[in-house]
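User: Good morning. I'm curious how flavin-adenine dinucleotide would be positioned relative to this chain. Could you predict the structure with it bound?
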Amino acid sequence: MNKNITVTVNPEDEGNQALIKNLAVAELARLGVSARESDITELVFRKKSIDARRGRVKIHLMFEAWIGESPSAKGPEAAFAPAWKKADPSRRVVVVGSGPAGLFAALRLLESGVTPIVVERGVPASDRKRDIADISREGKINPDSNYCFGEGGAGTFSDGKLYTRSNKRGDIGRILAIFNHHGANDAILTDAHPHIGSDRLPAIIGKMRETIVSWGGEVRFGVRCASIAVKEGPTGPRAAGIVTASGETISADAVILATGHSARDVYEMIAELDAGRAADAPRALEAKTFAMGVRVEHPRELIDKIQYHGRERSDTLPAAEYRLVAQSEGRGVYSFCMCPGGLIVPSATEDSGIVINGMSPSSRNTRWSNAAIVVETRPEDVPAEFRKLRDGQDDALAGLRFRTWVEEEAKKQGDGQKAPAQRLEDFLAGKDSTTLPECSYSPGIIASRLDRWLPEQIRDRLAEAFVDFDKNMKGFVCKEAVLVAPETRTSSPVRILRDPKTLESPAIAGLYPAGEGAGYAGGIVSSAMDGERCADATVAAFASRRE
Ligand SMILES: Cc1cc2nc3c(=O)[nH]c(=O)nc-3n(C[C@H](O)[C@H](O)[C@H](O)COP(=O)(O)OP(=O)(O)OC[C@H]3O[C@@H](n4cnc5c(N)ncnc54)[C@H](O)[C@@H]3O)c2cc1C
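Assistant: Good morning! Here's the predicted structure, ligand included:
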């Protein structure tokens, strides 16, 4: 028989097998299973989590305890058996974008032998590194190759945190196992907060591409989708492929659009299709709630001390994380993408703006810890000057215009990609920062009155929330804490609509909007799961057309 059990130990006892076995016997007894240590044939490790609440630090270890018999299947390799098939050239799907949604969609299509043709506006991950280095060196953004665009999408030079709050939409374990199959370490299969690290992701992404190509899929770099090739069919418009920026038409039976939420031109392209349609025709886009704010950075040691209750962090514990949430005037204000031992990075996709984000190397050992602190922004919160009425209603791109305005305003306040910054204490006091602390953001920071130019509704809510956060994490508001702006790309301000059952655009049959850019995911794992769902939907459509 086997039983799932959890044992709790002090951090220094995590590797103490004798103690763990002893605790396992007691835990089994508590669950009504009488077993001696010698009856336990194996403790198969399943998950680990750190609990730093209530003034103490404990490690929870979850095991599958096998009693009197050997485990039937154990270990990460049991979770995923590759089932890719040679691609059939007569069944083709264009996948636009090679982010997590696009890559996992392509791999999933290959499980049914459908040929994915992945088109990516950027370059392979190895070449992307050069363009990313140029952002810090020269303060210039290449609009097709940057932190968000290129092989692997925004996920490649991301933090590689693989946790998601969504567990409804697919099989998280499968996604982790596919990353593991392509070289991610085994720990991602068992950690409660799995993390790959920005230094390891590019090689893993490269291996996923090799899998796609080896089974007969195509991956084409430097190819930007400029429009959807639409054919009028008996039931209305239908996607028959794409037209690239160089004018080439790539024909296919369906198109999975997985372009992420930074591709402003893609939203504008879809909005144009909408604009040319009769007022009562189904729409392709709608405005949605998104979030904007700043990134806050502290010395890592300070956050470790707060979270580990004043103790120095020992080698057995990772750099400390936090998650904060507050309510201010009816809107949520929350921490997002917390990067312990990480860096703030320049992630604009256009030279006209500044956008920041965060990432960590696998070791999480820089001197800083940072997190986005963002304010929920609903369509009705978007100021009137960004709205264009269409048939008496705001059009879908108002939030996108507001986001662009904030990014461009930040650029005016900064210099090149040097970002505007203010000490947290000065932000709250409405004062100039006459000096700034050392910051991990490599293009550099410039003192700026964020409290003056950030939109009022964001500034005021941030200020209220920071006071609240300091009550939960004493010392959060301090001299060393610095705010860097703006954090604008935590979620998409636009949704590319789709039918809840077929996942096709209601405006264009055969077009499958996928991932974060379409508004159905937020983060690497949920985008990957959504890519898989869209691939399954295209395969189901192939099958029903044949019937
Ligand atoms: C610095 C940073 C750190 C992050 N850290 C984390 C983290 O730790 N954990 C986490 O879960 N999430 C993190 N994220 C967010 C995560 O990366 C995204 O949620 C995820 O990548 C979205 O996946 P996607 O496939 O939907 O889109 P994307 O990853 O954005 O991919 C879209 C792809 O489409 C391509 N594309 C766009 N337009 C076109 C076009 N017209 N033609 C052809 N190709 C096009 C782009 O070049 C890009 O490669 C981070 C993001 C950044 C920027």
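The chain is about 30% helix and 25% strand. The chain has a mean pLDDT of 92.
Let me know if you'd like a different ligand tried.
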